[in-house]
Amino acid sequence: MENTMETAAAVVVVVVDVVAVLVVVVVVVVVGVVVVVIDVVAVVSSNRSTIVVAIRVAVVAVVAVVAVVAAAAVAAVVVASVAAVIVVVAAVVDAVVIKVLVLQK
Question: Within 13 Å and on the Cβ side, how many CA atoms surround 81?
């Protein structure tokens, strides 16, 4: 029963990792679309003012920082979840080996 709980916990961790990655991708895409819309509006209105350029640069900088931080966080979580899965697999293998050894006696 304990191994089942550990396996379920490992699966939940991996699912959370995948959802986190998807959320980061969606946020980056949405912000990218906003930047493109700002650019298109600026070009259509032929008023590429300093404010529009400053906003675009700021948005791109924020997206870059968020992407780097998110990538680092996701990498850390993925490493942790892989470690958790390895621990669970090792526990299951240990349990099987112990049962086989007990059955042989």
Answer: 18
CA distance 43 to 77: 41
Q: State the Cα–Cα distance between residues 63 and 24, nearest whole angstrom.
A: 10
CB atoms within 10 A of CB 84: 17
Residue position matching structure tokens 């979580």: 77
2-54 pLDDT per residue, tens: 666 766 777 777 777 777 777 777 777 777 777 777 776 776 676 666 777 77
62 contacts 34 by C-beta, under 8 angstroms:
no
Residue 10: count other Cβ atoms within 10 Å of its Cβ. 19
